[in-house]
Structure formats: C-alpha cells, structure tokens
Write a structure and sequence with these properties.
two-stranded antiparallel sheet; 35% helix; three-stranded antiparallel sheet
Length: 196
Amino acid sequence: DEFGKSIREIVGRCAFEFMPTDVAAMRRKQVEEARVTGRMVRYREEAPGRIQDVILVPIEGEGGSVAQMAVFARDVTDLERARADLAKNELYFRSIIENSLDLTAVLAPDSGFRFVSPAMERLFGYRPEEVQGSRAFDWIHPEDRPLVEDSFRRALEDGTRVEQMEFRFRHRDGSWRTISAIGKALPSETGMQGAI
C-alpha cells in the first residue's frame, strides 16, 4: 500500500526499487551509516500529504557484523499537523496577550506571579521579569489586601469567578493605582493550580 503495490509484488525485492532515485540514494547512505556504526538511525520521510518517522535498527549476525536491518516506520502526519496547529494557536493567543492594553497575569496558589503580560510595564512601570515569582498580594495596598486575598482563596477553593473587584496596586514611582480586576481559577485541564 505504501508503494502502491501489493505485498506479493514487494516481498523479496529491494525497497530502493520503489523510491525515486534521489530518495533512494539518501536512504542508502542512512542504511550504510547504521550498518557501519552498528547504531540506530532515525529520520523523517516526507512525501506529499504524508510524514513518517522511520527508525533503522541494525541486527548483528555471527561474528558481530550487521547481518540484517529492521525498519520501523510510523505515520506521524496527524501528530505533526496537530503540533503545527498548536504552534499557530499559541502564537495567535500570545500576540493578543502581548499587545493587549489590559494586564493579564497567572498566579500560583500562593499568589506568586507565574506569568505577567507586557502591559505590566505600561500600567505600573515594572518589566514582567521584575515581578515574576513575587507574590501579587505584596504589591496590593494593605487596606485592600484582605478583600483580595479572600476573593482569591474562594476562587481557588470553589471555582468562584471574581467579578469587577477594585483595589490599589503599587506603581514603580511609589504611588497607588486603582485597578479593576476580574479572575477565576485555572481550569483543572491545565494540570496547574492557581488563577488567571
């Protein structure tokens, strides 16, 4: 099926006969590499609409020399398409977050910043890497902190969505900026605990 031939037509014949000349030459080199080194060789086989992960495994015969070659091929077309789609989606959402005027942050259960979008610098004067790992509560005005901590705790415990909460956050210049925030616990499907 792979070469457009029946099994009866293929058995006993050299696989290189069914390949274009340039591809056959490349595969011969890979087989020779596996034979000479005695080590496994792995490569990708790409054809229109199909991608395969191929492994050549040399099998020693008497005297320790390579007598046969086992070939394992796995169609990874769907996997590669899924990876490409995932990369596109990640780039798309990263572009939205990194260019948004709103601040997006992911907090660990202890309120430590796991992720902070670039809007942090525009709004509060801190580069994201300056606050990464620090506790969000430490940047909140002491008078507002109990309410924010309570809402955060409830969101983690029962998935309650935090709606339009206003509190003061310390700017780099020492002033307090009032912000309006919403948030919710990270979905369990992420495999992470915390809130966004």
